[in-house]
Amino acid sequence: MGLTLTEKILSKHLVEGEMIKGSEIGIKIDQTLTQDATGTMAYLEFEAMGVPRVKTEKSVAYIDHNTLQSGFENADDHRFIGSICKKHGVYFSRPGNGICHQVHLERFGKPGKTLIGSDSHTPTGGGIGMIAIGAGGMDVAVAMGGGTYYITCPKVVKINLTGKLSPWVSAKDIILEVLKRLSVKGGVGKVMEYTGEGVKTLSVPERATITNMGAELGATTSIFPSDEITREFLKAQQREEDYVPLSADSDAVYDEEVNINLSELVPLAACPHSPDNVKSVDEIGKMKIDQVLIGSCTNSSLLDMLKVAHILEGKTVNPDVSLAIAPGSKQVLNMLAQNGALATMISAGARILESACGPCIGMGQSPNSAGISLRTFNRNFEGRSGTKDAKIYLVSPETAAISAINGYLTNPCEMGDMPDFVLPEKFLVNDNMVVAPIEEDKMDTVEILRGPNIKPFPVSKPMESEITAGVSLKVGDNITTDHIMPAGAKILPLRSNIPKISEYCFAVCDESFPSRAKEMGKSIIVGGSNYGQGSSREHAALAPLYLGVKMVLTKSFARIHMANLINAGIIPATFKNEADYDRIDGGDVLEIKGVTDGIKNADTLTVIDKTKNFDFEVSIDLSERQREMLLAGGLLNYTKNNSNK
Ligand code: MIC
Ligand code: SF4
Predict the structure, then answer these.
(1) Span 374-390, mean pLDDT?
(2) Domain ends where: 211, 235, 262?
(3) Candidate from 67, 77, 118, 121 with most ligand 1 atoms within 8 A of CB, to mutate
(4) Are residues 38 and 180 in the same domain?
């Protein structure tokens, strides 16, 4: 029986467990990446592990999220990360060099390698044939220290692409179509593997748009084969030596199959407030718009930008629309400057932003009240833009650009013939904004530069045998980590300061939660299905830990957040009978006896609702390792206990 590409790469990196779907496996990690908003915690955790030098083939730290610097905090974080990287063997991509996923794809990603990153869009690397997975900062810290990374051995879904995209229909429309069909929960426990004749029609940056936004499916990751197109891309990046051909065996057996005929696709848009709320642009109609933003790790490659410049050429942005463009990397921006495309954008009236995440994470460019904003980004969760009542639509760069000119949502196919956009034979390669670490024998000369906002991370205590705690919050389905631990220009500077950032925990849902949870001392959060979808930020677990949350009880969890809760020593439990969700209210006091024994040996715990006088069962579906971690009080305690043995 043949193997899928996913199985080939995973089995080559397997260090623990067996390739049995649904069981936990441990894999060796070749590369890691961090970004600054999750990076300070990850490096503090790495430091606490006491490993002098990173043990991966390549670890890179990017500064791309917190670049607004409206106070000293961001700049202090940048200096801290820069110094700790220099000392411990991590390459440091300075602010201005671009968005982590875009730069990693251009300069460091290698087919057939494994990559984990403290950012949920790390699967972008799948565009170049990597197994690239988003993880919590603590998992990345452990991998940098040479530790194994654990995942549930995934099912593999074959996404069979046939045909060829029509002019002005783009890679973004492919992933929007996948999201429309499968939903934000459709990828849980699965890897999306793209195959078929249609694959050959897509360049590496287009493939990366698809694997990037595959994160919104809840998938473990997404991957494309490494073929001649991959080789050409690597050659143009002056690193053809990194190329290896990789694909699934012709008789590979997949768990599921999805067929997409590219020739049939039309321009699509994800409507507020979920990436899977997808309609065709024509179906939505000529909606008047207030803002257009082009950029983010999904759509900021050179090819995307060249198409946008072509559409803007000789035109002026509609007077009722604000258009801002953030090219994804210094390489892209530099090339746009050299070939005149940047001048075209400026001349049309586009507001050019630095190569960073920027408005995608609410760092500036919040829309007007109740504003309608078209964005080429990957997430349109409520409030993420910084304007609570704004309506965000996720579209392709082509749709965004033509709509910015017209002032209303426009199907780009109305433009008729499309010129042939091809990638350059040679990209402009200049890695002068990547600082190499100091030699190992000189590492003692490097001083770690810490700012006053950088506070130690909270560490959990070993598990107690009994928990009696009130329900401090009850929330519904599809709660994102943007609800749990919001981002944006005001809150992001506090990412290095858990006590401070905790004051904003669940601010979108209930501003009184932090003070209530603190007052209760110990508490339990109750949630619906797909709890914790979205970002990898471990702050969504560390802030509740700091506020005394002992258990999160839901209908189901998103993968990265569940791992982050366990890493933090918080029990992730699910209702055995989902109907029990409706019987519990905020404020109810819940009692769980025999917690440690249950975590050691059982798949369920009995919870007594003392307020309403009934009991019910909850599942704790955990691996051996996760059980030990919870008993020890989280990943760092567990790692310390093991290294003392
Ligand atoms: C996001 O897109 O939500 C982020 C901001 O990149 C996060 C990371 C973070 O919260 O710092 C992610 O995707 O993991
Ligand atoms: Fe940055 Fe947005 Fe990409 Fe997250 S999704 S890494 S915030 S550009």
Answers:
(1) 96
(2) 262
(3) 121
(4) yes
Mutate to test the pocket of ligand 1, among 33, 120, 213, 379 (most ligand atoms within 8 A of CB): 120
Q: Is 389 exposed, middle or buried (0-12, 13-18, 19+ CB in 10 A)?
A: exposed
Residue 459 belongs to some domain of the structure = no
**Confidence band for 354, pLDDT divided at 50, 70 and 90:** very high
Q: Are residues 89 and 107 in the same domain?
A: yes
Q: Is the CB of 297 under 6 A from ligand 2?
A: yes
Q: Whose CA is nearest to atom 9 of ligand 1?
A: 537
- Verify that 390 and 356 share a domain, yes or no: yes
Rounded CA gap, 250 and 245, in Å?
14
Q: How far is the CA of 140 from the centre of ligand 1 (A)?
A: 14
Q: How many domains does the chain have?
A: 3
pTM for the whole structure? 0.98
Q: How far apart are CA 450 and CA 345, in angstroms?
A: 40
Which of 208, 228, 262 lies at the terminal end of a domain, its last residue? 262
Catalytic annotation, residues: 64-65, 119, 379, 535, 537
Q: Where are the beta strands (DSSP E) in 110-249?
A: 114-117, 131-134, 149-152, 155-162, 190-195, 221-223
Rounded CA-CA distance 595/401 in Å is: 56
Q: What is the pLDDT of residue 645?
A: 65
Sign (positive or negative) of CA dihedral 340, 345, 351, 357: negative
Residues 402, 267 contacting (CB under 8 angstroms)? no
Whole domain around residue 280: which residue ranges?
Answer: 270-415
In a domain, 136, yes or no: yes
Q: Residue 624 is part of a domain; what is its CATH number?
A: 3.20.19.10
Q: Is 270 in the pocket of ligand 2 (CB under 6 A)?
A: no
* 130 shares a domain with 279: no
Closest Cα to atom 5, ligand 1: which residue?
A: 361
Q: What is the DSSP letter of 246?
A: B
Co-location of 506 and 572 in the same domain: yes
Does 31 lie in the same domain as 136? Answer: yes
Q: Is 357 in the pocket of ligand 2 (CB under 6 A)?
A: yes
> Does position 643 have pLDDT exceeding 90, yes or no?
no
The answer to whether the CB of 291 falls within 8 A of the CB of 42 is no
- 515 closest CA partner among 572, 584, 506: 506
Is residue 461 in some structural domain?
no
Q: Is the pLDDT of residue 641 over 90?
A: no
Q: Which residues form ligand 1's pocket by a CB distance below 6 Å?
A: 37-38, 65, 119-121, 134, 361, 487, 534-537
Which ranges in 145-183 belong to alpha helices (H)?
171-182
Q: Please write the tens of the pLDDT for every residue from 399-421.
A: 999 999 999 999 999 999 999 99
Mean pLDDT of the chain: 97
Tens digits of per-residue pLDDT, 499-526?
999 999 999 899 999 999 999 999 999 9
Residues 406 and 527 in one domain: no
Q: Is residue 560 part of a domain?
A: yes
High-pLDDT (> 90) share of the chain, %: 98
Query: SS3 of 632, please?
Result: helix
Q: Is the dihedral of CA 612, 616, 619, 624 positive or negative?
A: positive
CATH number at residue 134: 3.30.499.10
| Model confidence pLDDT, tens digit, residues 178-231 | 999 999 999 999 999 999 999 999 999 999 999 999 999 999 999 999 999 999
Contact 39, 119 (CB under 8 A): no
Looking at the structure, tell me whether residues 223 and 249 fall in a common domain.
yes
119 CA to centre of ligand 1 in angstroms:
5
